[in-house]
Amino acid sequence: MEYIEIEETEEKDEINFHGVLCAMRQFHNITLTDLAEGLCSESEMKRIESGERYPEKLMRDRLMERMGVSGESYEDYLQPDEQEKWQLRQNILNSIIAKEYENVERYLLEYEAMEKQSKIEHQFILAMWLWLYKQTQKPKELCFEIAKKAVSLTMPKIITGDVKEPLLSAQELNLLLEYIALKTYDGLSEHEIQWHIQQYEYILTCIEKPHIDPLAKAKIFPKVAYYICNFILENDKSYKNIQKAIRICNQAIELLRDTKKGYYFIELLEQKYQLLQELILYFQSKKEQDKIEKLQIIQQEAKEWADVLKQLYEENGVYPYMENDCHLYWERNSIAIGDAIKARREMLGMSRKELAEGICSERTLMRMELKQKKSQLPIVRELFEKMGLCAEYTRARVITTDFETLQLSEKLTTSMNNYEAEKSKQLADELERRLCMTLPYNKQVLMRVRASLEWDDGKLSEEAFICKVKKALGYTISLDQIWNAENRYLTDEEIVCIFNLASSVSDKTEKKRYIELLLEICNGYIEKYGFSAHISILAFTLTGVASWLGNIGEFDDSDALSNIVFKECLMHNRLFDIQDSLYNNLWNYKQRLLHNLPIHTTYNEQQELKKCILLAKITKRTTLVRFFEKKLDESSQD
User: Fold this and answer.
1) Three-class SS of residue 476?
2) 327, 284 contact by CB (below 8 A)
3) Long-range contacts of 347-351 (CB under 8 A, 24+ apart)
4) How far apart are CA 138 and CA 128, in angstroms?
5) Distance CA 513, CA 624 (A)
6) Maximum separation of any 2 CA atoms in the chain, in Å
7) Which of 225, 374, 398, 506 is 20 to 30 A from 162, comparing alpha carbons?
């Protein structure tokens, strides 16, 4: 039987949630009092930071969100009771997206009937009731009372006006936004109009704190901007306020472009068009034609972007406008502890007796795998370490308590996605200097990154690249153990290693084998947890698989997969992957024409390439813009 070899060093994997939380708080000079406000006592917060008490899932998420960290960058392991509630919350969100109002109500009542609801759970329930009541046209007064009650649960001092700039999560800020918006009514006085504008700007002040990362900011800033712009357009179109609204609208649009998210993107583009029209009318009265012409050019671009995005949404049967706040509540990358242990143990070919030896009883392990028993953290740590897994419930892809290093890792990922080779190499060098390189997870990431950069630079042969990536993967699990497993659990980084192997092999048979493996892994996640729960790694992986299927001539399967990813990305406001899927279908269409194969959908090549160029511009993917422009030039010459 093959075991994972973990190097024996004095520095074990002692990175943990409370260590990361404490490091982040101290880095940003945030007090325990501010972090704990409305959630728990300061003494309880001290116990969490010291590691004496491990908080439940929603509390972990809320603390990280208050620290300005988006949960999308983290993988999370769930206890049995946490998974049961997690699944119920996902059921509620999925029912909201499907507009199944009766199911939303049924699941909410089921959640309310559960014992030991935390303050945050109660707030979640109220937020969902608020959405349901707004959708079903319940009285505004009732909606206001629900919003007020939800705000008062974790933000009581805001209701009484005792706090000026609180530390709040995107979910809390959203409830505060709804609370303020529900105070509006027809016939507001000038004083009341200014009060509302000031309240919206107050929320922006809370969002624009320097410690909040762009992904976390992108979840709420665009909605606040949309509410402010809408309020100004409806109540006070003075020159000063229109200028203010345009500035805020532009900030929100640029944030969405930087993060490749689509939250309120179309709404903001349309508002930008309206706001610019108000400025045009103003300058027409001043007879300033030069300014009018410049504004009209900007106005036309906003219209063009909005029209293309709306067309794509509508063609794929997805409503183009934001109808809910589910994006604030999705709990991504969550895995049941029992599922992870069972799958990993079976992948390694270990019996329960072999895994449990020296750690816990075989019966305890069996109950953990069957999700009948809440796991003790020290036992989970030892079991995970024995199986080559990170011994922490909440983890980023690299293991560190240094917040600047975590940010550096995110910058490296972004730089590589943008094909910025030199910048990526510099970031990788700096990351290696900062990380503890005795930990296998960190060695895995850096070796895979460096191999990818050398491969892209033409410095590695196919054989050498595959050898390096297999070695990187082997720090936590061998490729053979993955091939031979029926039940699998892999970390996101391990999946990326397999993806890199699949992308590099030139042999068609071997390529097909990797494709089938990745499809098995992805389908396993989808069947067990749904697409939305792991959308980042699924969209990334399946976009590549769809492209490779086209390369080996399996055009129907390639199109079908591209369409699935395309629709899921639109439904979940991900703009990053959609131009790739769009171009993949166009490429498959051209190959069908070339080989006289049946055509299912006809495309206008130049129109589709123009869409791809526009989407790449919107998401600031300059390398892709150049690629698509080159393809457009070639098409024009044919």
Assistant:
1) coil
2) no
3) 347/477, 347/481, 347/482, 347/485, 347/487, 347/488, 347/489, 348/1, 348/2, 348/3, 348/4, 348/387, 348/388, 348/477, 348/481, 349/1, 349/2, 349/481, 350/1, 350/387
4) 14
5) 29
6) 85
7) 225
Sites in the chain below the pLDDT cut of 70: 1-15, 73, 161-163, 391-396
**Nearest alpha-carbon partner for 542 in 571, 522, 525, 512:** 522
DSSP result, 165-206: S----HHHHHHHHHHHHTT--SS--HHHHHHHHHHHHHHHHH
* Residues 6 or more apart in contact with residue 444 via CB below 8 angstroms: 472, 473, 475, 476, 493, 494, 497
Helix, strand, coil distribution of the chain in percent, nearest 5:
70, 0, 30
Q: Which two tokens stand for residue 208?
A: 């624009």
Using DSSP bridges, classify how beta strands 75-78 and 334-336 pair: parallel, antiparallel or unpaired: parallel
Tell me the per-residue pLDDT of 438-484, one tens digit each, with 9 for 90 and over: 888 899 999 999 999 999 999 999 999 999 999 999 999 999 999 98
Query: In 3-state terms, what secondary structure has residue 433?
Result: helix
Q: The tokens 């179309």 sit on which residue?
A: 266
Per-residue pLDDT tens for 544-571? 999 999 999 999 999 999 999 999 999 9
598: which DSSP letter?
A: P
C-alpha span between 245 and 272 (Å, rounded):
9
CA 545 to CA 262: how far, in whole Å?
A: 24
Tell me which long-range contacts 106-115 makes (C-beta under 8 A, separation of at least 24).
Answer: 108/132, 111/85, 114/85, 114/88
208-255 tens-digit pLDDT: 998 898 999 999 999 999 999 999 999 999 999 999 999 999 999 999
Give the span between the Cα atoms of 123 and 304, in whole angstroms: 40
Cβ distance 88 to 232 under 8 Å? Answer: no
SS3 329: coil
**Antiparallel, parallel or unpaired: β 75-78 and 394-395:** antiparallel
* Helices and strands (H, E) in the chain, number of each type: 32, 3
Neighbours of 234 (CB within 10 A): 11
Q: Which of 250, 254, 220, 296 is nearest to 618 (CA)?
A: 254
b/e map 77-109, b = 16+ CB within 10 Å: bbbbebbebbbebbbbbbbbeeeeeeebbebbe
Distance CA 592, CA 584 (A): 12
Comparing C-alpha atoms, which of 437, 442, 472, 436 is closest to residue 454?
472
d(C-alpha 612, C-alpha 609), whole Å:
5
- Is residue 526 within 8 Å of 568, Cβ to Cβ? no
One-letter amino acid at 150 equals: A
CA-wise closest residue to 436 among 468, 410, 402: 402
Per DSSP bridges, beta strands 334-336 and 394-395 are: unpaired
Q: Where are the beta strands (DSSP E) in 36-111?
A: 75-78
CB count within 10 Å of CB 429 equals 12
Contacts of 185 (CB under 8 A, 6+ apart): none
